[in-house]
UniProtKB/TrEMBL annotation:
One of its GO terms (cellular component) is cytosol. Keywords: Cytoplasm, Ribosome biogenesis. InterPro entries: KH_dom-like_a/b (IPR015946), RbfA (IPR000238), RbfA_dom_sf (IPR023799). It is found in: Cytoplasm. Monomer. Binds 30S ribosomal subunits, but not 50S ribosomal subunits or 70S ribosomes. The keyword Cytoplasm applies. One of its GO terms (molecular function) is ribosomal small subunit binding. Belongs to the RbfA family. Pfam families: RBFA (PF02033). This is Ribosome-binding factor A. The keyword Cytoplasm applies. GO terms for biological process: maturation of SSU-rRNA. One of several proteins that assist in the late maturation steps of the functional core of the 30S ribosomal subunit. Associates with free 30S ribosomal subunits (but not with 30S subunits that are part of 70S ribosomes or polysomes). Required for efficient processing of 16S rRNA. May interact with the 5'-terminal helix region of 16S rRNA.
Length: 128
């Protein structure tokens, strides 16, 4: 379980990284929409696991680009939060699969063949 300090730090990182992907890192990701869905910080605040969701582009390509430019993204982060934190955490980026999992589950549920429930009038006739 994360401490209050870790949660506070994670929220700060999530907000700032989201803005970085919207503004400073536009040249890296092009027209793709990258959303920081979750950030988990280690107890010493030295490592941050960042979960990304990608729209309007091939996710694999975007993850490769982001991982190749990890140092540049960390530099942008240090310019934004360097005065308020002691350590700029090492960043580890991971794909957030929750959206694709939700689409898959929606498809599975939609494909179920569920017979319609009998009407209340039909149930009354069967009881008599």
């Amino acid at each position: 379980m994360e401490s209050k300090r870790q949660q506070k730090h994670a929220k700060l990182l999530q907000r700032e990284l989201g803005e970085i992907f919207q503004k400073e890192a536009r040249h890296l990701i092009g027209r793709a929409m990258v959303t920081v869905t979750r950030v988990m910080v280690s107890p010493d605040l030295g490592v941050a696991k960042v979960y990304l969701s990608v729209l309007l582009a091939e996710p694999k390509e975007i993850y490769d680009l982001v991982n190749d430019h990890k140092k540049e993204i960390r530099l942008y982060l240090s310019k934004r939060i360097g005065k308020s934190v002691r350590i700029i955490p090492e960043l580890a980026f991971f794909p957030d699969e929750s959206a694709s999992y939700a689409q898959y589950m929606d498809k599975v549920i939609g494909d179920l063949n569920i017979p319609p429930a009998p009407d209340e009038e039909d149930e009354d006739e069967e009881e008599n």
